[in-house]
Design brief:
single chain, 540 residues, six-stranded antiparallel sheet, 27 strands, hydrolase, endo-1,4-beta-xylanase activity, carbohydrate metabolism
């Protein structure tokens, strides 16, 4: 049951902007969007049009009843947004960003309530989220704005909903059971009544963290990393500006030392990244830039071929076009093709931010899929989709919606740089649980990598799981508890048919059967994805 705390009244909207005019309309039935995310709200068809806008800040506002918004509650903004084409656009169906903000008090404090990429003739569903540090002392106002001057904005059925995380988690546990577990039959003939003990050694769903040359010297960091994490990624040491700070002077020593550390710890490493959107101190013409791009690929991938199972090829292409603007759009696919030739065993990823948050019109799942399809048409062997996961106030339904859309590509998805920013560590633990449960319950997701976990050694300082003194905080404890929850250990006895049945998470195990005469039998096995029960015959 969703708790709707605000539902816009068509008569309650007022214009923002000196010339903005508002009018009410009814959308044609055939043009109505599908029912809304999560809450299943069917669009009414009635919308308000804000026209004659002179500025991006112009739009429409409506007051929220005082007292309904509470501190520490995560709210979701729902509804539909569209735009009408500006006169100078003619018949071109171009889109525009439209934003929803929550203005508190006299408007000095503005909270982001989400954004969409709205196109003429189409309705885009708003899926924003926000949380207040303090309860408003006076009326709050919802404000829809953001499109360029002259673009008419349409708003339908805007609502603010208090999320119900407990209900969502309950649903996800059932979903997780279907996605991440399998029935196992331990079998031993003629041994009815024998005791069985099954211990899971590793989970088949990897969780990792970024590391750097400094943190691996910290005993508390190394202890948490080696005990609770499976994979690694280098924070900076593989990036071009690090390995070649000055043109022609290569430095792979730092990356080599980190790779040796991970080899000793038995942790696979993601290769981050071959290219980013910019590079310093390269002058000259197009041919010279192309030559250094080729040198970068040959130098990095030639040195480390077979060492990194993943590579982020050209990082954050939704938010930058450095190489494409200088070398042409085809260079992006060329990077993938050349990387595949130089290291054919590596899965080659796209990697970008905000796609899972529904707050960035430049980074929608649809735009990400379009980018992937363009790369594939250019011959790129795209092997995976990276969602960075730098999140605040996460909403499970919004994350799942993005994952569902990306899953249509049939490519594996990894959350590659997860950090959950929240100063209140108890809320941070809740937010972290939201993201991890959504990822673990979704069949398209194959792993999650944290962008660090220790206070004082992270890009975002309000995202730590481990305090600077090495103590594990509430968020870190929640992480450990989830790992424990996703581990299957079982005990029992063989039945009269010589079988012991349990349902276990995917991963590696060891089973021990002790017969009534005291004979012990051990067997290692792996539970992989499958619909049929896995039969473990202790006799073979």
């Amino acid at each position: 049951m969703q708790d709707v705390v605000f539902e816009a009244n068509a008569n309650g909207w007022v214009p923002s902007g000196s010339r903005t005019a508002l009018s009410q309309h009814q959308e044609h039935l055939a043009r109505l969007p599908a029912a809304g995310l999560g809450h299943g709200h069917k669009p009414s068809g009635g919308y308000v049009l804000a026209s004659d806008r002179n500025d991006e800040k112009d739009g429409l506002c409506q007051a929220i009843t005082p007292g309904v918004l509470k501190r520490r509650v995560t709210y979701r903004v729902a509804g539909w947004i569209s735009v009408a084409a500006a006169e100078e656009e003619g018949n071109h169906q171009i889109g525009h960003p439209v934003r929803v903000s929550i203005r508190l008090g006299d408007g000095a404090c503005v909270v982001d309530g989400g954004a969409v990429w709205a196109e003429p003739g189409r309705w885009a569903e708003i899926k924003g989220a926000f949380r207040l540090r303090e309860s408003p002392r006076s009326a709050a106002v919802v404000h829809v704005h953001g499109a360029p001057a002259g673009v008419d904005v349409k708003v339908m059925d805007l609502r603010i909903i208090a999320t119900d995380r407990k209900a969502r988690f309950s649903y996800l546990k059932d979903k997780t059971d279907k996605v991440r577990k399998r029935d196992v039959v331990v079998k031993l003939g003629g041994a009815a009544g024998a005791s069985v003990r099954v211990v899971q050694l590793d989970n088949g769903f990897p969780l990792g963290s970024c590391i750097n040359g400094e943190v691996i010297q910290n005993p508390a960091f190394v202890d948490f990393f080696t005990n609770h994490l499976d994979w690694a990624v280098f924070e900076n040491e593989l990036k071009w500006y690090w390995t070649e700070a000055q043109r022609g002077q290569l430095n792979y020593g730092d990356a080599d030392r980190l790779l040796d550390f991970c080899d000793r710890a038995g942790k696979p490493v993601r290769g981050h990244c071959i290219f980013w959107q910019w590079i310093k101190d390269i002058g000259g013409d197009r041919d010279q830039l192309m030559a250094v791009v080729q040198d970068r690929m040959r130098g990095l991938l030639g040195r480390y071929a077979g060492r990194f199972p993943h590579y982020d090829v050209n990082n954050e292409m939704l938010h930058g076009r450095f190489f494409r603007d200088r070398l042409g759009d085809d260079v992006a696919a060329l990077m993938f093709r050349e990387a595949a030739r130089l290291d054919p065993g590596a899965a080659l990823f796209v990697n970008d931010y905000n796609v899972e948050c529904a707050n960035d019109p430049n980074a929608t799942p649809e735009k990400y899929i379009d980018l992937i399809r363009q790369l594939q048409r250019g011959g790129a062997q795209v092997g995976g989709i990276g969602l960075q996961g730098h999140v605040s106030n996460p909403v499970g339904e919004v994350i799942c919606d993005a994952l569902d859309k990306l899953a249509a590509t049939d490519l594996p998805v990894w959350i590659t740089e997860l950090d959950v920013g929240e100063p209140d560590v108890a809320l941070r633990a809740d937010d972290l649980e939201v993201v991890l449960r959504e990822a673990y319950a979704h069949p398209a997701v194959q792993g999650v990598v944290l962008w660090g976990f220790m206070q004082g050694h992270m890009w975002r300082q309000d995202a730590a799981l481990v305090n600077a003194d090495g103590t594990v905080n509430d968020a870190g404890q929640r992480f450990i508890e989830l790992r424990r929850e996703w581990t299957s250990n079982a005990r029992g006895r063989l039945d009269s048919d010589g079988q012991f049945i349990f349902r276990g998470f995917h991963g590696t195990y060891v089973a021990q059967v002790t017969t009534p005469t005291g004979t012990k039998m051990l067997k290692a096995f792996t539970v992989e994805k499958g619909d049929a029960a896995l039969v473990l015959d202790m006799d073979t």
